[in-house]
Amino acid sequence: MKPSTPTNGGVTLRAALIGTLFIPMNVYLVVQWETVWGTQYPTTMSIFFNAIFSLFILSILNFGLRRAFPRNAPSQGEMLTVYVVMITAVAVSGHDFTQTVFCTLGTASWYATPENEWNVLFGRHVPTWLTVNDPAILTPFYEGDATVLDARQLRGWALPVVAWTVFFTAFAFTALCLNVLVRRQWMEHEKLTYPLTQLPFEMTQENPLAFYMRPALWVGFGIGA
């Protein structure tokens, strides 16, 4: 009797939770790489290598889980859902997105001077609940010695950060919804292949070792290395 195989479910609570667990590590690394260390810029590339690496680890673990507990192993659809959760979080937290926005929340107030007349020209049009305007909060941010352990700092940044987070969450959700709306026309009628999806799709097959044993894969990997 053959062991039961996992169903082809896709968007499940389990998949969403697994993807959420991968978010802190991936977002932290992206922020460190792109804004602190200045060494790697994964979100400026067509495919996010940190998310691919996380999916690689997950696919290997899931291969073992499918052999030991086939009923409980995530399906390919769930694995791809995990990947979508990761790349969405990485994209929003990446270069020229929230990294830029959150770094400029105090710009209008901090750099306003009598000479440039920013307060006169547009200061009244900048919502106070979307920006940080308290000099006591902005001084350590721009000059250093700021710490997240300071309750006053946390209170000063809390409302703008929450407001922008809600906006970006709605923005990302809307983008995903638009993809769902155009998917049928683009994929089933116009036959678009989406090359960027081929790698995660192959990595999440029921037997990923068949993919990793392909000579062409390692030739391409060797050239890149």
Q: What does this entry look like structurally?
A:
The chain has 225 residues and is mainly alpha-helical. Helix content is 66%, strand content 0%. It has 11 helices and no strands. Helix 1 (13-37) packs parallel to helix 3 (76-92) and helix 2 packs antiparallel against helix 3 (76-92). The longest helix has 39 residues, at 151-189. The chain is elongated, with a radius of gyration of 22 Å. The relative contact order is 0.11. Residues 1-7 have low confidence and may be disordered.
Q: Topology, pairings included?
A:
Blueprint: H1 13-37, H2 49-68, H3 76-92, H4 98-103, H5 107-110, H6 118-121, H7 135-143, H8 151-189, H9 195-203, H10 208-212, H11 215-224
Helix pairs in contact: 1-3, 2-3
